[in-house]
Every structure is written in structure tokens, then in C-alpha cells.
Specification:
Layout: E1 2-7, H1 12-22, E2 26-31, E3 54-57, E4 60-63, H2 65-76, H3 87-115, H4 127-158, H5 170-185, H6 192-202, H7 205-214
Parallel strand pairs: 1-2
Antiparallel strand pairs: 1-3, 3-4
Helix pairs in contact: 1-2, 1-5, 1-7, 3-4, 3-5, 4-6, 5-6
Bound molecules: glutathione.
Glutathione (GSH) binds at residues 7, 10-11, 38-39, 50-53, 64-65, 101.
Length: 223
Amino acid sequence: MLTVHHLDHSRSSRIIWMLEELHVPYEIVRYQREKTLLAPPALKRIHPLGKAPVLVDDGQVIAESGAILEYLQETYDADDHLRPQAGESRQQCRFWLHYAEGSLMPPLLISLVLSRLGKAPVPWLLRPVGRALGSGVQRGWLNGHLATHTTFINDHLSSHTYFAGDGFSIADIQMSYPIAALLARAKQGDLVHVRGWWRRVQQRPAYQQAVARGGPFDVPGDA
Ligand SMILES: N[C@@H](CCC(=O)N[C@@H](CS)C(=O)NCC(=O)O)C(=O)O
């Protein structure tokens, strides 16, 4: 039996979605974030990093969303429905699979950390300083950086139905978490093509089943 160690409002929703796409039986072990938004220590008993997701398959413990998606695709997607096997689409699929965690999540995470500086556990007199510092870095550096990413993604989706081209793939599942974070910070009406893609993939029965079993696909705080 496959087991997903699932933290609420987290990247592990992607693994539940993947398992629903594959129609394989699995069980979920649930963890609640602590007040700090960190995972509870119990997750460290499953994998030394203590992060979600972790997948356990027949005693084999696998961490990192991208590695888990690739493992599941290679092991359970017998007809390769979820990964293009050749050409430009295959390369696109690989690119977005790495880009999601390697390039897009770091600035989103920095943004989350900066937005919480005003709530840091330091003497209250220092909190306004933390807030001012956080919003200065947001305005002076981070917002421009994130705008480059959002334009890049929105432009790509203006000419591609899915991240890897015409067919839905594991790249779409991997991109869903940073996209949820981007949409949470976007202005109404922005990112038209990203919103179109998001509506398209949310219509998939596997996505809906994943939400029903694992909870909503959203991000904690205001990442
Ligand atoms: N690159 C890793 C990131 C894992 C990660 O940071 N997961 C978050 C959940 S979205 C987590 O466990 N956060 C709680 C913590 O850091 O304690 C992946 O994609 O699996």
C-alpha cells in the first residue's frame, strides 16, 4: 500500500492529485502545521528532513515532490499518459518539473518570510522595524523578481494548453503549488492565461477527488 504523509495546506496535495490521476490505492497520514507554520516533529520520524510530502511505497521512503512525481510516473503510469516521451514536450516537462521548486518557490518563500517579519518573536518595539525592512526588500527587489516569473509563466500559457504542451502532465501537477501562491498575491484580472490553465486543470476529476480527500490546494500565510 502506498502511504502519503500529508501536511495541511502544503505541497503534499500534489502527490494526492498524482495518485488520483493514476487510480492507485493509497492511504493518507495527516499532519497539522504548528503556529509557526512549520511541520510537527512527528514528520522527522518518517524522513530526517521533516518536510512534506513524503511517500512510502513498500518500505521505500521517498521525499521531494519532483522526485516523488517522477517515481510514481515511472512505476505506476504504465502507458506514460502523464509524461511526454519525446521531443520538445518531454524537454518542457522536465524544465517545469525543476523550475517549480528550483527557481519559482525560493522567491515566493522569501516573500512569505518577509511578510511575517512584523510578527517575529522579538521585543514588540522591534516589530515595526522588521515590518519596514520586509516591505522595503519586497518593493526594492522581490516584487520585480516575481514579476519576471509571472510574465514568463503567463506568456508560456498563452500559447500552450498545459505546461508541457497539448497534454496534461506531471509538470502541471508540480507547478500547481507555486501557481496557487502566485494567484493568492495577484491582482484581480491579472494573469489571464494562468487563470485559464488553473480553471482547466481544476476541472479534472482527479484534482477534485484530491481536494475531497486531502483538502484545498492553497498556501499557508500570504506567500
Ligand atoms: N522542495 C521540497 C520542499 C518541501 C517543503 O518545504 N515542504 C513544506 C510544505 S509545503 C514543509 O514541509 N514545511 C514545513 C516545515 O518546513 O517545517 C518539495 O518539493 O518536496
